[in-house]
Write a structure and sequence with these properties.
Radius of gyration: 15 Å
Helix content: 55-70%
Number of strands: 0
Shape: elongated
Strand content: under 5%
Largest sheet: none
Structural class: mainly alpha
Order of helices and strands: HHHH
Mean pLDDT: 88
Number of domains: 1
């Protein structure tokens, strides 16, 4: 049972990290994981990761939904341990 829960949680988190996002200021759709991998400190303000983080501030409802989903995963996994 725990193995199934871990697999499900992993798939959800993987989807969150790999989901293509159309972000204002970005030249193309980009995922969180791609933005993090491509991040360069010397151009931080113009990076895709910066644009994604700014969209989290701009759309607090969506950000709260993401945080709620991650909290639910944590609670579910903690209850299975």
């Amino acid at each position: 049972m725990l193995k199934e829960n871990l697999k499900d949680a992993g798939e959800i988190i993987s989807n969150i990290l790999q989901q293509p996002l159309a972000i204002t200021g970005s030249t193309q759709t980009v995922s969180l994981i791609e933005a993090a991998k491509d991040y360069k400190k010397n151009s931080a303000f113009y990076s895709d990761l910066s644009h994604i983080l700014l969209s989290f501030v701009e759309y607090p409802e969506s950000t709260q939904n993401l945080l709620t989903e991650l909290d639910l995963i944590c609670v579910d996994l903690e209850s299975k341990i």
